[in-house]
């Protein structure tokens, strides 16, 4: 997410000790269901990508200090259900790496993987990767069923033998085992990323993941895509140098049916999972797709270009269905792309601030533009600090404006 709007020192009202707070503290409108200050003194707070699970909304006070808590609130009322404290041995910033399965939660905090109860947030265990020979782990994870997938960095005395390891962790037993390793190439990390996961017609679990290599001294880049059969413990296929720029993006591949979709730096691809064969790709010269991951709905792929605008592609062949440039949608604060019931919502620029936009998925026409009312009291309060998600059950939107975590009810 973009944080190009600068923080301004603003006087703080009385601290909020029992969220959600009295709505008279800040303006409230017909779209706002509830809002909670990110920090009790109304100073700035950020968050990992918020997560919904059951009746709970989960978010963090990311970037406000080490050991910041994870919060669980009632998604309909904002009432606090629990928040974590500093009971982890290793304190670090909570990343956008959060996985829920049954009654378990796992999230990365620095090099520490926390395991907690979903019902009360009580810690069940932790793995500090700096205590192991691997030495460190990447900032992202993914999960499937009872497994968590993390990339660890193994540093050895002989630097030529350093490597990345794709490891899986059982969320119940917290047992770790290595699935796939990739050695450094000419002294440089090949940067594995956590996988997207699917099960094929034979019942085998397949992991689809990428590696990104860059050697600054030569400007050589490689972007490769892999399919690893976790059931058979073998590599099914590898596609080398799939993107012309070689830069790639950090997003986990999306899998639908027997197809996998990958978003690169300025390209998007569809591959056949069984063979790895590329079915189609689209390249957008002069554009960039780092800030916002694409979404797929209504047989369309929706992509938000950083600073240009929004487009919809045909999921089957990649052809453009409609395209809205920055004359209509300012993408300078792009983010929060989500879908519900025929509508697309995203965060875009609005005269130096950022607003939430609602558009119709079938043709891209706009029906809603919403700026946080909190800017009337906090002049630098704006969207774009925190990613936005939509509740598939209610259609409510959840995001934050740098001061508050908010639940919004968009117009129909």
Structural class: mainly beta
Please provide the count of β strands: 32
Count of alpha/pi helices:
0
- Write down the overall geometry: globular
Low-confidence stretches: 1-13
| Average of per-residue pLDDT values | 85
N-to-C terminal Cα separation, in Å? 26 Å
Radius of gyration over all CA atoms, rounded: 21 Å
Structure description:
This protein has 412 residues and is mostly beta strands. It has strands spanning 32-37, 51-53, 56-60, 70-74, 80-83, 94-101, 104-109, 112-117, 123-128, 136-144, 147-154, 163-170, 176-183, 196-199, 205-215, 220-229, 234-239, 254-256, 259-263, 267-272, 278-283, 295-297, 300-305, 309-314, 320-324, 335-340, 343-350, 353-360, 366-370, 389-390, 397-400, 404-408. A 4-stranded antiparallel beta sheet has the order 1-32-31-30, with no helix packed on it. Strands 2-3-4-5 form a 4-stranded antiparallel beta sheet, with no helix packed on it. A hairpin with a 2-residue loop joins strand 2 (51-53) and strand 3.
Write the layout of secondary structure elements.
Blueprint: E1 32-37, E2 51-53, E3 56-60, E4 70-74, E5 80-83, E6 94-101, E7 104-109, E8 112-117, E9 123-128, E10 136-144, E11 147-154, E12 163-170, E13 176-183, E14 196-199, E15 205-215, E16 220-229, E17 234-239, E18 254-256, E19 259-263, E20 267-272, E21 278-283, E22 295-297, E23 300-305, E24 309-314, E25 320-324, E26 335-340, E27 343-350, E28 353-360, E29 366-370, E30 389-390, E31 397-400, E32 404-408
Antiparallel strand pairs: 1-32, 2-3, 3-4, 4-5, 6-7, 7-8, 8-9, 10-11, 11-12, 12-13, 14-15, 15-16, 16-17, 18-19, 19-20, 20-21, 22-23, 23-24, 24-25, 26-27, 27-28, 28-29, 30-31, 31-32
């Amino acid at each position: 997410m973009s944080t190009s709007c600068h923080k301004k020192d603003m006087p703080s009202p009385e601290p909020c000790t029992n969220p959600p707070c009295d709505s008279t503290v800040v303006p409230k409108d017909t779209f706002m269901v509830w809002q909670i200050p990110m920090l009790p003194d109304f100073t700035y707070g950020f968050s990992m990508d918020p997560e919904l699970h059951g009746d709970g909304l989960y978010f963090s006070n990311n970037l406000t200090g080490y050991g910041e808590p994870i919060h669980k609130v009632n998604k309909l009322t904002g009432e606090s259900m629990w928040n974590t404290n500093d009971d982890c041995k290793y304190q670090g910033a909570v990343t956008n790496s959060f996985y829920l399965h049954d009654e378990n939660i796992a999230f990365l905090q620095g090099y520490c993987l926390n395991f907690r109860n979903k019902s009360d947030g009580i810690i069940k265990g932790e793995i500090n990767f700096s205590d192991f020979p691997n030495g460190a782990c990447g900032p992202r994870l993914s999960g499937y069923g009872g497994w968590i997938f993390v990339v660890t960095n193994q540093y050895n005395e002989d630097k030529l033998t350093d490597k990345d390891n794709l490891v899986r962790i059982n969320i119940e037993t917290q047992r770790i085992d290595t699935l796939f390793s990739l050695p450094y190439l000419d002294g440089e990390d090949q940067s594995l990323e956590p996988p997207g996961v699917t099960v094929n017609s034979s019942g085998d679990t397949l992991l689809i993941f990428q590696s990104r290599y860059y050697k600054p001294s030569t400007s050589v880049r490689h972007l490769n895509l892999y399919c690893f059969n976790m059931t058979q413990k073998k590599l099914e296929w590898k596609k080398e140098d799939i993107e012309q720029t070689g830069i790639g993006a950090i997003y986990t591949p999306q899998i639908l049916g027997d197809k996998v979709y990958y978003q690169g730096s300025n390209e998007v691809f569809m591959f056949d999972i069984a063979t790895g064969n590329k079915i189609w790709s689209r390249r957008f010269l002069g554009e960039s797709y780092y800030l916002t991951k694409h979404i797929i709905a209504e047989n369309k792929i929706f992509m938000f270009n950083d600073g240009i605008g929004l487009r919809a592609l045909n999921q089957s062949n990649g052809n453009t269905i409609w395209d809205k440039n920055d004359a209509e949608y300012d993408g300078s604060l792009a983010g929060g792309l989500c879908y519900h019931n025929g509508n697309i919502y995203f965060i875009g620029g609005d005269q130096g601030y950022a607003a939430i936009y609602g558009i119709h998925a079938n043709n891209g026409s706009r029906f809603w533009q919403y700026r946080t009312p909190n800017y009337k009291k906090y002049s630098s309060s704006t969207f774009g600090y925190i990613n936005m998600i939509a509740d598939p059950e209610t259609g409510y939107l959840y995001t934050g404006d740098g001061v508050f975590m908010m639940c919004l009810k968009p117009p129909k």
